[in-house]
Protein: Pentatricopeptide repeat-containing protein
Amino acid sequence: MCCIFQLNYLPSEHMECVSVSLWQGSSPSTLMRGSNSQLRCDRIASVSCRFQEDATESYCSNCDTWHSNEAADLLDWMVKVPDVNDIMSIVQKCRKEKDLSRAKRVHLQMCDHGLEAQNVLANHLVTMFVCCGDMPLAQQAFQRLDERTEIAWTSMIQGFYEREEFLLILELFEAMQVNCVHPSSFTLVTLLKSCTKLRKSDKGKKIHAEIIQQGFETVSFVGNSLVDMYAKCGLPMEARDVFDELRDPDIVSWTALISGYSEQGLEEEALSFLEEMKGKGFFPSAITLFCGLKACGSIGALQNGQEIHTDIVYAGLENNLSVGNTLLDMYAKCGSMHEAQRVFDQLPTNDVVSWTALLLGYSELEFGNEALECFEQMKVEGVFPDAIAFVSGLKACNGLGDTRRGQLIHMEVAEEGFESSYLVGSALVDMYAKFGLLAEAHDVLRAMPVRDSVPWNALIGGYGEQGRGAQALSCVQAMQHEGCSLNPITFVCSLKGCGMVSDSENGQRLHDKVIKHGIERNSYVSNALIYMYTRCRMFIEAENLFNSLVVRDTISCNTMIAGYADHGYGEKALACWQQMQSEGVTANAITLVCGLQTCAILENVKKGREFHTNIVKKGFQGESIVGNAIVDMYVKCGSLTEACKVFESLLIRDVALWNTLIFGHVEHGLGGEAMKYLERMQQEDVCMDEITYVGSLKAVIDLGALNEGLKLHAQIVNDNLETNLMIGNTLIDMYAKLGMLAEGQDVFDTLPGRDVISWSALVSGYVEHNLYDTALACLENLECEELSPTALLLVRMLNACGGLKAIFKGQDINRQIIIFGLEKESFIGSALVDMYAKCGWLLEAEKTFTMLSEQDAAAWTGLIAGYSEHGSVIQTLQYLDRMEQAGFTPDAVCFLCSVKACVRIGAQDKGQELHAQIIREGLEINPYVGNSLVDMYAKFGLIVEAQDVFDELETRDVISWSSLIVGYADCGLIETAFQCLEQMQVKGVTPNEVAWNAVMLALSETQDNEDALSIYAQMLERGILPDFGTYVSIFRACGNSAALKAGQRFHSQVCNLHTIDGNGLIMTTALIDMYGKCGSMVDAQQAFDADPSGDIVKWNTLMSGYARQEKRKIVFTLWKHMRKMGLQSEVTYLSILSLCSHAGLVVKGQILFETMNQEYENAVIFKHCNCMVDLMGRAGQLEEAVHILDMMPAHPDRVAWGTVLGACRNWGNTQLSVQAFDNLSGLEEYESSVLTLMSNIYADSLFSKETENNGANEKQFYLKGIG
Structure:
């Protein structure tokens, strides 16, 4: 098939044949040349058949390259070409008749003959296809044009305008400017209309510049279009400027200006122009009057509307249905329903618009019953409601709170097929949201095919009103995800939602968007921002916003006062109240309620009475919310008498008021009074709500009245409220705190939709009753339910970790705390310190403590308790001092830990100082503190002071008695200890293992082994089972008495005992000690080997046993092993030195002593020195012994000088014995035995001298005899 060429058409008289030169393998050369143009084959190939096919048919195929033998065919083709004028006539006819089918055939014929490349025809092809309604073909023809005339541009623009493709029109205008094509005045008007439709004033300004360039600004219809464009694009000043430049503004000009101003919300200016127009002699047209009525209705300009009504009557338009409906709408919007009804009744016919205007008027003015009557009458008259009528009916139901009627109208909406209507859908969402039926509202919203900010705002507002901020924010996110723009109402609802869930991050983002939208000065938005910031505790931002307000109204002041009050900033709230009064801002009931809440926070009853007086003066006391606030204020200020007085004076006492009084008594620990008010409330037939039940259950917890709690539970079940989450959580809490954990678990298991509070109540119960494993198991179940733990729950979990010493689990919870952003909460930080301290990770505890932003008393207490529990006594006392320096008063726990620390280091003076401080703080009556003081004095050996503290105790429990008995036993007052043991039983206190063990241990220490075993028998007779302490005492008694068989028998009992699992090491050490003292080192070694732990005490005990048996090789072998293991201590050296002393290993002992001095420095104590003195004394090195005494860290004691004195007798050193005796005489521990020893030394010395004299006499006698 031959190719269609794009040829510039030339008449035959202007064409001439040209020579054709064809080269083998080369491109085609020139085929023909006209007088004005030429066409080459290479160009032909490139433009061949651009118009391939449309939706209905194909026009041609790809072209083939011409060859020289086709030149003759070209000449024949030129002869057969149809007349262009004939084709043009056919094209014009197709355009006029809009005959698309014939237009396509003509186009095909033109393509067959190559005439579509003829410029004039090709441009008219565009117009033809546009008029025939086929824009795709028109676009293709337009794109093929090499030279586009103004007619093609105009046709395309008109075609796009008819199809409302306004953006494409403006793109064509840009292309026209690029191609230097100037639109006609009519085209410019179309372009301006497109800008108006799109509200693109920037494009409109460019077109305005084109108009000026072409001098069309004086053309009236162009000027009118410019006025209309600027006015409707929101540039009224520019519209007015153009209008003023018009030479002769006509009625159209005026109408454009009035309509534009009216649409932009400048109704007053629009009405002013209307008056100015009439003053210029122009009588308004129907459209002008229509615009005027719309403006009057928008601003409620009833008088202006009545004047226009007069003009309508004068013009004879009162029977015009469109004008009449607009007049009816104006009166309705101006609130004159009587006139609206009159216009409605006078209309020749009432269509759906008339009925809807009347119905909408009644609905907007909250004449709900009249609106619904109108809605029903409309249907009776055979007029089917449209979308607006349904909207008005739904709004009337909304105003009346008539849920049932609203649901019936919803059913009609579905029957009439209006569910997909945007207006109806939005009204349904709004109605259901305000009814609180948010699930139904959400369903309607999801079913809407088109959703913008209006229905979303209604739903967000509904969630906000119900305090469901999380759902509100979720809706905002979904709304933004759908691309819906945020308006002031959206911002207000969204900010309220952010405030409710304290989402400051999203709140600040919304604030940024508010600024970008330029609506930060909107009073509703600014108040919502203040609300959001106060709820998020960002008071600096809230104050900056509040202070930047040009006018601070009642709402903004109330928002600030309420924000301060809600977060406990009472003083600032009162300052805001004072500022409000000084600025003359009127206070309403809400303001005064907020003021009362502030007084309640500050517990300022005096200021509260002032507010009470103000309320009475303003007459607000009759409002229930105000009365409740007054009672609540007096309750929280502790003035229950005044609260009850106000309560009795109120005429209306609703359930909320009763709840306030019940809760008030509970909060002040008056659970009994609360239960009395509950009984009275029931007698007055006031129905209990969930708050009442919660308050009553809390009263039960306060009283510990389980039976009352069970009765309330039964009543809750009877009222079908057992599934109520708040009540269920309180029931769990009640059972948990009363120790009924199984019942609490049952309530928990049957509670639907349980939340994190439910888990917190249950876990708290388990932790309080030391069921830490169960508590931690709850955390895993909580994660399975995809609930985020609260700060309180995490604290409870940390308490459980501390109780179990589960450090790794505690670290996991610490990581969760960081993830949830709760690490800055003071009580969380205190709990972390406590957990790390209890787990023995004291460095981590101290690090966490140091990093706390606020180190409160709880954090100090946790750290002090941790150091105390893990034996860091010095740090315990240091942190107690630092706590006091930081301004915190230690509590009972701090004093308890500090007293124990004093006991451990023997700090008697510090302990007595703490006792004085405890008395000043009034904590001596605390049983735990009192018991610790008894224990402290007893262990200091100050048994008289211990007895005094004991006698002052209000309650003497088993701990108190046991501490005193242990004290007497430790002081060797066995008889008194035993008397206390009997006395405590007389007082009704059953002795525990500690008391029995103390007496047994004291007897075993004093070698009264038989008595110790007798006490053991009495203990068993009274049903007290022995614990590890009992057996330790028994083993010591057996060891002291070398009762090997008895010890072995008790050992076999211990093997069957399961209550010593945590004290196995102590028991093992006691066994090794017993067997060692009994001389059975085989059994001692077996006991040692059975315990794999590398405890230094156990090693030292075994070494002492071998040393006692003088097993030197084994002792030194053990010592070498201990050194390798890093287990040696000063006690270890004491055992080895003792062995060296008894074995006479002087050199070995000296080396060990020097090594110990180097390794332990200040750890050398009297016993080590005494042992070395004994070693040197036994070896006769008395001067070296005295030298060691000089090295002692303190004055040598009785044992040291006694050892020297004994050595002096053994070695006959009378001179040194005098020095030792003099030192012993200066000590309080001086005993008569020293005199005996000294006299023996002198006797030995005299005997020695006598022996020497006798020897000399014998020698002299012998010599004399020889002589």
About this structure: The longest helix spans residues 1232-1266.
